[in-house]
Amino acid sequence: MTADARPVICFVCTGNAARSVMARRMFAELATGYRATSAGTLVLEGHPMSSRTRSALRDHGLTDPDHRSRQFGAEEAVADLVVAMEPDHVSWVRRHHPEAADRTATLPRLVRDLPAAGTLAESVAVLGLATVEVEPWEEVVDPASGDQAVFDDCAVELHGLVEALAARLPDPS
């Protein structure tokens, strides 16, 4: 058990190589009262982020040299909030870790719907996330097959969304 008592926000994408990596690092910079982690739903474990992800982060003044890809599992399922990058990730968590379904939503949905009042647990609970219908508009498109410009555009989109999420979360202290 870790001595870090900060609430945990776990960012999830498919391979834990681009979107969740960038979102986690951006969030860690913006919301120091929280502990940010990341994982993927279909991961080759232990791989560093891609060079395109590294470059996109660098454009935002960020680095994460120690990142290694990680499969979402029981340790991530106990996070205070699981932030998915697309509807399929929410469905995957609901199927494989139903105990986390009531704390799992896409980043765009959280930015749109998360109440900016109360504790994190209270704000998340009112959303009824275990049964909310996830919709196509909630996707942050995976840049994986794109060139550097696609990764850079994804990083810009993620920065705006992560900044908006951080502003909606209560101060955990």
Description:
The protein has helices spanning 19-30, 51-58, 74-77, 87-96, 107-113, 120-125, 148-168, and strands spanning 8-13, 35-40, 81-84, 104-106. With 173 residues, it is α/β, with parallel strands linked by helices. Strands 2-1-3-4 form a four-stranded parallel β-sheet, with helices on both faces. The mean pLDDT is 96. The radius of gyration is 15 Å and the shape is globular.
- Side by side, the strands of the main sheet go 2-1-3-4
- What structural class results from the helix and strand content? alpha/beta
In total, the number of strands is 4
Residue share in helix: 25-40%
How confident is the prediction overall: mean pLDDT? 96
Distance between the termini: 20 Å
**Low-confidence residue ranges:** none
Strand content is 5-15%
The gross shape turns out to be: globular
Which sequence of SSEs, written as H and E, runs from N to C? EHEHHEHEHHH
Radius of gyration: 15 Å
Major sheet:
4 strands, parallel
| Helix count from the secondary structure assignment | 7
Summarize the structure.
By secondary structure, this protein is α/β, with parallel strands linked by helices. It has 7 helices and 4 strands, in the order βαβααβαβααα.
Give keywords.
four-stranded parallel β-sheet, alpha/beta, globular, 173 residues
Any chance you could write out the topology, listing elements then pairs?
Blueprint lengths: L7 E6 L5 H12 L4 E6 L10 H8 L15 H4 L3 E4 L2 H10 L7 E3 H7 L6 H6 L22 H21 L5
Parallel strand pairs: 1-2, 1-3, 3-4
